[in-house]
DNA sequence: CATGTTAAAGAAAATCATTTTCTATAATGC
DNA sequence: GCATTATAGAAAATGATTTTCTTTAACATG
């Protein structure tokens, strides 16, 4: 999903397209991983300097409301990842925190009619991405 | 899952079975819903009085480590529900916060080998339980 | 391209959930 | 019982997030 499309979505909802938002949004989208607000703030500071942490919090709030950011609760910490607003699932690497979208959905929702009305569902897979797998093998091979 | 089994699990891990823990644990298990630590504390106070909030926090921490409590992130709040430690999925009612276990699992994990190694997954269904569905229909029928 | 309107930025302060500290108590094993 | 040690609970500390307030800049309008 490209920046221009997101910008038009913000625009549609009467949010202004400030320079700060564009900077944070670009960093967030390009990271490909889940980040805490503080981590995102750090990433932004590396490239551009001085965007307030408050501004980062506020953008994450806006994106979450619009369905463009998804929160993950890992070990008591809340992380966010940028997301398109079409339904999909996620694979999260527990090492590097990279997130991969999984667009296959078994649409199993209807199978659970007996519990009540299912409005939506989410499925998260947790593990280790191929990149980190490789690294971990190399680390192990160095052990005594 | 009955109380005695949980108690033996705690015991195995060298946790002491205090009166306070038994009280909080019983309340937690019987609630059938997800609760914030503060909400659980309130529930406990209704029946027995005076168990410290700190104690509630500590029990939730212990249970989570043992895989006997599952956290849910709903609208920025972290809720916990008591859980058996066998893999299963959940249906959460967005009205009353009751949680239903779903023991069917499609074991689809292997299908996603291409993203990396999947250690575990979770699937959560969100909606409205039959009880709340009924209530909501009644409420609607009262509208002008 | 002014200009008025208003959302948003940022700094500082406030809030509030959670954790830590410390002492007294009670659970456990012998 | 008795010694050992984890835990309860009160109070304080911490720290993430939110709120407040003033200044700035985005946007619509003509
Ligand atoms: Mn996504
Ligand atoms: Mn469960
Ligand atoms: Zn990885
Ligand atoms: Zn319900």
From TrEMBL, chains A, B:
<keyword id="KW-0238">DNA-binding</keyword>
<dbReference type="InterPro" id="IPR002481">
    <property type="entry name" value="FUR"/>
</dbReference>
<keyword id="KW-0678">Repressor</keyword>
<keyword id="KW-0805">Transcription regulation</keyword>
<dbReference type="GO" id="GO:1900376">
    <property type="term" value="P:regulation of secondary metabolite biosynthetic process"/>
</dbReference>
<keyword id="KW-0408">Iron</keyword>
<dbReference type="GO" id="GO:0008270">
    <property type="term" value="F:zinc ion binding"/>
</dbReference>
<feature type="binding site">
    <location>
        <position position="129"/>
    </location>
    <ligand>
        <name>Zn(2+)</name>
    </ligand>
</feature>
<dbReference type="GO" id="GO:0000976">
    <property type="term" value="F:transcription cis-regulatory region binding"/>
</dbReference>
<dbReference type="InterPro" id="IPR036390">
    <property type="entry name" value="WH_DNA-bd_sf"/>
</dbReference>
<dbReference type="InterPro" id="IPR043135">
    <property type="entry name" value="Fur_C"/>
</dbReference>
<dbReference type="InterPro" id="IPR036388">
    <property type="entry name" value="WH-like_DNA-bd_sf"/>
</dbReference>
<feature type="binding site">
    <location>
        <position position="87"/>
    </location>
    <ligand>
        <name>Fe cation</name>
    </ligand>
</feature>
<keyword id="KW-0804">Transcription</keyword>
<keyword id="KW-0862">Zinc</keyword>
<feature type="binding site">
    <location>
        <position position="132"/>
    </location>
    <ligand>
        <name>Zn(2+)</name>
    </ligand>
</feature>
<dbReference type="Pfam" id="PF01475">
    <property type="entry name" value="FUR"/>
</dbReference>
<keyword id="KW-0479">Metal-binding</keyword>
<dbReference type="GO" id="GO:0045892">
    <property type="term" value="P:negative regulation of DNA-templated transcription"/>
</dbReference>
<feature type="binding site">
    <location>
        <position position="96"/>
    </location>
    <ligand>
        <name>Zn(2+)</name>
    </ligand>
</feature>
<feature type="binding site">
    <location>
        <position position="93"/>
    </location>
    <ligand>
        <name>Zn(2+)</name>
    </ligand>
</feature>
<protein>
    <submittedName>
        <fullName>Zinc-specific metallo-regulatory protein</fullName>
    </submittedName>
</protein>
<comment type="similarity">
    <text>Belongs to the Fur family.</text>
</comment>
<dbReference type="GO" id="GO:0003700">
    <property type="term" value="F:DNA-binding transcription factor activity"/>
</dbReference>
<feature type="binding site">
    <location>
        <position position="121"/>
    </location>
    <ligand>
        <name>Fe cation</name>
    </ligand>
</feature>
């Amino acid at each position: 999903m490209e920046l221009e499309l997101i910008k038009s979505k913000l625009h549609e909802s009467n949010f202004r397209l400030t320079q700060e938002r564009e900077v944070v949004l670009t960093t967030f989208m390009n990271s490909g991983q889940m980040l805490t607000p503080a981590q995102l703030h750090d990433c932004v500071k590396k490239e551009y300097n001085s965007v307030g942490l408050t501004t980062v919090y506020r953008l994450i709030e806006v994106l979450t409301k619009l369905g463009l950011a998804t929160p993950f609760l890992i070990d008591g910490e809340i992380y966010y990842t940028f997301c398109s607003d079409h339904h999909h699932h996620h694979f999260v690497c527990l090492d590097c925190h990279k997130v991969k979208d999984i667009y296959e959905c078994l649409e199993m929702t209807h199978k659970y009619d007996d519990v009540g009305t299912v409005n939506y569902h989410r499925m998260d897979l947790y593990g280790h991405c191929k990149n980190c797998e490789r690294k971990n093998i190399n680390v192990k091979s160095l052990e005594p």
